Amino acid sequence: MNWDLMSYFSGFDSPDVAQFKASLESEIAGLQSRCAQITPIGADTAGSWEEIFLEVEVVWQRMSHLGSYLGCLTAADSANEAYKAAEAAFATVSAEAETLEVDLKRGLREASDADFSAFAQRPALAECGHYLSRLREEAQRTMSPEEERLAAALGVDGISAWGRLYSTLSGKLEFDMVYPDGRREKLPMSQRRSLMANPDRAVRRAAFEGGNAAWAQVEDVAAAAINAIAGTRLTLNERRGVDHFLDVALFQASTTRRSLDAMFEAIFDSLELPRRILRLKAQAMKTTGVSWYDLEAPLPGLGDNEEVIDWPRAQETVQTAFSRSYPRLGSFVQSVCDRNWIDWEPRANKRPGAFCTGSLLTRESRIFMTYNGTMGDVRTLAHEAGHAFHSYILKDMRAYGHFYPMTLAESASTFGEMILTEGILADSAVGAADKLSALDSATAQAAVFLMDIPMRYEFEKAFHEERSDGEVEVSRLEELMTQTQRRIFGDVLDEGGEDPYFWASKLHFYITGVTFYNFPYTFGFLLSRGLFAEFKERGSGFLPHYEEFLRLSGSATSEQLARRILGCDLESPEFWKSAIETLRQPVERLETLLLHRLEPDGVGGDEVEG
Ligand SMILES: [Zn+2]
């Protein structure tokens, strides 16, 4: 492993890990029995509840420390059985710790408004008003503590078992890959995605068709899982008094239905802009439109002469780009690299994907990724560094101020990516090919956020509506999926270019802990474009405000933060429209660069783009 994990524990086999876990377990058990003996928050119990809340806060810090450590180990070496066993044992501890939340909610739920507000104003609970109000709000939509405990216990063999079944199914599923030269190979489904990003269209199509043939073999299992997961949620919502299935997702995202609707109204009014990005791709491929398997492909010709960017140069590229416009971010990344906080090298048994994790005890972060030398990987580094910087800005906040939603987390990471793109485009030392590649990946990503993700949201919403009336058949799932794709992508998606099995192949629909694992990405992406536009207009004077935005991300709603930092109203489509508009310039620049791409020195170095 490349990263230094010594600040977590001296080693996995050291006695500190076992001791830490044992004392955590006894703290949780002690808190559980104390909670069971105390009546809801009132004048006479407020002091005891305050102690409980402060101790639970420490439990969360310690949980994040151990959880992050084990997450790092299993990601870096997924074949290690001892790590796997430790992670499974930790899941049991997590489930116990989560029952503490049922108790805290009971304390808050039955408190009178006056008792609650007196409680939230106690000095020891300063700066957790937002956390407490949210927990109380959630407490209003719960069943009795006994029913909640039963639901949690049954969930292990119910909703989460369906999620695990899906993971096992997709993990073991193989498909027949028939290469353009006739060579055949059986491949695990995990390799399909990179084949569908291959510069050769015939390879992409073969992976797409072979993969879907495999999904067709297990369509009934996937349909049973997606129906059971949604069905469980709908039943629990009804029992908990949740009016609409989106309310849970909105609560998790810390935003309002009005903001969400305003965002989608703006997106659906502006679909022509992201469609133009795909039109350009079709034009470059000399086809009438794109097919589903073209969405992740680089522009033709771009992958051919792309040189491998070695790891030292990747770090330097990110640092230089960051330091150019945001010195504090640049020096932060420098220290992340110097302190060996990144596990980057490609190795056998590493988990796919990238993430940033951290400990609320040490207030340090770690970045996990697999660096293969492409511009996309450099971008991943900037993305994860944006997440790590978010935690760094939050480091002096109490633990209860760290529970920020995915919407705001993704704003911080995308902000990092935008600074990278701008830095590359403004750097005269960067060649035309790299600039084109940076613009291609930035605009391709915008097309994902403005069409692919909204498509997933629209599908999931329509599916939940139909699921309220009973199970949805395989044929209907396919139909709903292709219809939604056609509606969002329009004529830029070739006739027959849809992916009818996307509901089965996309893991995000089967994540049981988070519902609607889609729109927060687009929300964060557009919000960060709004922040970035403000940064460009106001210059470095805006950066302290940006840092305040990050610092308060766990202490206010998205609407409150946008109003305070940007003076914007997220509930109005105007904000979202102007955020989408900021893409026009990079799209036009890509069009121009593509026209001149045969002239290697034809790109000026002083223009600045987002
Ligand atoms: Zn992210």
Describe this structure in words.
The chain is mainly α and 610 residues long. The chain is built from 25 helices and five strands. The strands form two sheets. The chain has a three-stranded mixed beta sheet with strand order 3-5-4, sandwiched between helices. A hairpin with a 5-residue loop joins strand 1 (174-178) and strand 2. Helix 6 (145-157) packs parallel to helix 7 (159-172), helix 21 crosses helix 24 (573-581) and helix 22 (543-551) packs antiparallel against helix 23. The radius of gyration is 25 Å and the shape is globular. The relative contact order is 0.11. Residues 598-610 have low confidence and may be disordered. Residues 383, 387, 410, 413 line the site of zinc ion. Residues 383, 387, 410, 413 line the site of zinc ion (ZN).
Question: In a few lines, what is going on in this structure?
Answer:
The protein is mainly α.
Strand tally is 5
Element pattern in H and E: HHHHHHHEEHHHHHHHHEEEHHHHHHHHHH
The average pLDDT is 92
What kind of assembly state do the chains in view correspond to?
single chain
> What form results from the Cα inertia axes?
globular
Most strands sheet: 3 strands, mixed
Portion of residues in beta strands equals under 5%
Radius of gyration: 25 Å
Bound molecules: zinc ion
Helix fraction, binned, reads 55-70%
The neighbouring-strand order within the major sheet is 3-5-4
Taking the alpha carbons of the first and last residues, their distance comes to 35 Å
Uncertain residue ranges: 598-610
Number of H/I helices: 25
Quickly give the structural class: mainly alpha
